[in-house]
Specification:
The longest helix is centred in the middle third of the chain and has 20 residues. It is built from 19 helices and 12 strands. It is about 45% helix and about 20% strand. By secondary structure, the protein is α+β, with helices and mostly antiparallel strands. The strands form 2 sheets. It has a 7-stranded mixed β-sheet, with helices on both faces. Strands 1, 2, 3, 4 and 5 form a 5-stranded mixed β-sheet that branches. Helix 1 packs across helix 3, helix 10 packs antiparallel against helix 11 and helix 15 runs parallel beside helix 19.
C-alpha cells in the first residue's frame, strides 16, 4: 500500500478498504505525545485506545473516512489521563483541516447540499464550516474605503443595503437591511470615513439622514438613474390609463408600445421612429406624455446646475392638466430633493455604475432562491476571482548614501547590492460588479 495515499505526513496508513462510493482508511499518528498537557511531566504510560473517524477530502470521486487509532495515556506524576491530539484535524469538528478549508471555499460557489453529498457530512456541518470560513475572511479581507461611495438596495428575500465604490464599479458591503440605524453603524465603524468625498443614493431619506449624521464632509448626490426612472414611470401611468379606453382593435395597433415608448428617442430604429410618430399623431395625450418624458431626460444634458434648474422650470410649465397627475410624483421629488439632485451637475456619476448594479439585481433574484442572507452576502463579497485589485509601487525616492564605514561596506557597489526593494502595496477595491454578474450567469457561483 502506498505510504503517501493520504499525503498527510503526520499519519501512517495501516489498511484500506474501498467500495463504489467510499474509501475507508485505517491510520495511526506517527508522533506520540512527549509530556502531560496538565503538568508537563514526561512520565507517561499507555492507558487504552479508541478509534476515531475523521472525514477527509474526497479522492477519485469517492468520499474518504480516516479511522485513526487514538492512544490514551496516563501521567504517573498527576494521575490524570488524556488522549493524544490528532495532527492536521480541525479543532471544532472531526474532519481534517484541509477538508474544512476546502468546504469553506467550495461553499462560496456551490450549494451546501451538493458539498454535503460529496463529502459525506450533513448540511448543518457544511453551514458551520462555511460560517467559520467567512468569519476568517472578514478578519483578513479589507476593501479600500471609496472616495465616491454609492448607497443603494438590492432585494434578497427583502430589501438589503448595498455599499458600492462608484469610481471602480465594485461592491464593498451588503447590509442586512436599509434602515437608518444600520447605515449609521456601518458608516461610523468604517475605516477612513473622513476621506469620503461624495455619496450617491436614491431618494430614500434614511440614507440621507445617516450620511449627514456621520459624514458631514461628504456631498450627497441623487443618482441620475433614480430620477429619470420616475419620468418613465409617469409615462407608464399615462399609457396604461390611456389603453383602458381603447377598443381591442386600437390596442392591437399599439403592439409592443411599452418597450418602444420607454426607449430614448435617439435609440429608436427607423421602423420604431415611424411607429412612434404614427402613435403620437393619432393619440395626442400619449404624445404629450412621451414628449414630457424625453424633455425631462434632456434636463440632464445641462452644463451646470443653474441651467438644469431653468430647464426643469420650463419643463414643468409645459405640463398640461390632462397628464399632470401622472407626473406629480416626479415634480414633488425634484422639489423636495432639489439641492441633492442638482449636485449631480457638479459631480456627475457615470451610467456604468447604475447599469451594472441593475444587472446584478436581476441575476441576484435568480441566485437568491433557497439561500439565507448570510450565505448570499458571502457569495457576493468573497467570490474568488471577482476582486478588483491594484498593486501600488512605492514612490521613487533618491537614495541616501550613509557612512559606509559605519555599516561595514567599503564600496558604493556593495551598499547598492545591500538595499532591499521596497514592498508593493495591494489595494482591494471590492467585488467587481461586471465580473460578479458574469460569474453568476455562467453558473460559477
Amino acid at each position: 500500500m502506498p505510504a503517501n495515499i493520504l499525503n498527510l505526513p503526520s499519519y501512517t496508513v495501516t489498511a484500506l478498504q474501498e467500495n463504489d462510493h467510499d474509501y475507508h482508511i485505517d491510520a495511526v499518528a506517527k508522533n506520540r505525545p512527549e509530556c502531560c498537557p496538565h503538568c508537563q511531566s514526561n512520565n507517561l504510560v499507555g492507558f487504552g485506545r479508541r478509534e476515531q473517524m475523521v472525514k477527509d477530502l474526497p479522492m477519485h470521486g469517492k468520499r474518504v473516512g480516516l479511522y485513526v487509532e487514538t492512544k490514551r495515556f496516563q501521567c504517573r506524576s498527576c494521575d490524570k489521563t488524556f488522549y493524544e491530539s490528532l495532527p492536521d484535524v480541525d479543532e471544532k469538528r472531526m474532519m481534517t483541516s484541509r477538508l474544512a478549508a476546502w468546504v469553506g471555499k467550495q461553499a462560496i460557489k456551490r450549494t451546501f447540499a451538493s458539498i454535503a453529498e460529496d463529502v459525506g457530512i450533513n448540511e448543518g456541518t457544511v453551514r458551520s464550516v462555511f460560517r467559520d470560513y467567512i468569519n476568517e475572511l472578514e478578519s483578513t479581507v479589507r476593501f479600500d474605503t471609496p472616495k465616491w461611495m454609492g448607497i443603494d438596495e438590492i432585494h434578497l428575500i427583502k430589501p438589503r443595503g448595498v455599499i458600492t465604490n462608484i469610481e471602480n464599479n465594485t461592491v464593498v458591503e451588503l447590509l442586512a437591511n436599509r434602515n437608518k440605524e444600520t447605515i449609521i453603524k456601518y458608516l461610523f465603524n468604517l475605516e477612513g470615513k473622513q476621506h469620503i468625498q461624495y455619496v450617491t443614493m436614491d431618494m430614500w431619506r434614511p440614507y440621507k439622514d445617516a450620511v449627514e449624521d456621520v459624514l458631514p464632509q461628504a456631498k450627497i448626490v441623487i443618482d441620475k438613474f433614480h430620477v429619470v426612472k420616475m419620468a418613465n414611470e409617469a409615462l407608464e401611468r399615462v399609457r396604461k390609463s390611456f389603453r383602458e379606453s381603447l377598443t381591442p382593435k386600437q390596442r392591437r395597433g399599439l403592439m409592443h408600445d411599452r418597450f418602444i415608448l420607454l426607449k430614448r428617442e435617439s435609440e429608436l430604429t427607423d421602423k420604431e421612429v415611424s411607429l412612434v410618430a404614427n402613435w403620437l399623431n393619432n393619440y395626442p395625450e400619449l404624445g404629450k406624455a412621451y414628449r414630457l418624458k424625453e424633455d425631462f431626460f434632456n434636463i440632464y444634458k445641462a452644463n451646470s446646475r443653474s441651467e438644469a434648474l431653468v430647464r426643469f422650470a420650463d419643463w414643468e410649465k409645459s405640463i398640461t392638466p390632462d397628464v399632470r397627475d401622472a407626473f406629480a410624483d416626479l415634480i414633488r421629488a425634484f422639489r423636495n430633493w432639489q439641492p441633492y439632485i442638482l449636485n449631480y451637475f457638479d459631480h456627475p456619476v457615470t451610467n456604468a455604475y447604475t447599469e451594472s448594479l441593475n444587472s446584478l439585481i436581476r441575476v441576484m433574484d435568480r441566485l437568491g432562491r433557497g439561500y439565507s442572507f448570510e450565505a448570499l452576502r458571502a457569495k457576493i463579497l468573497f467570490a474568488e476571482g471577482a476582486f478588483k485589485k491594484q498593486l501600488i509601487r512605492p514612490k521613487f525616492e533618491r537614495r541616501n548614501v550613509p557612512d559606509y564605514a559605519t555599516i561595514g561596506y567599503a564600496r558604493v557597489d556593495d551598499f547598492r547590492a545591500y538595499q532591499p526593494e521596497p514592498p508593493q502595496k495591494e489595494i482591494n477595491y471590492g467585488v467587481d460588479i461586471s465580473t460578479l454578474v458574469s460569474m453568476i450567469e455562467n453558473g460559477e457561483i
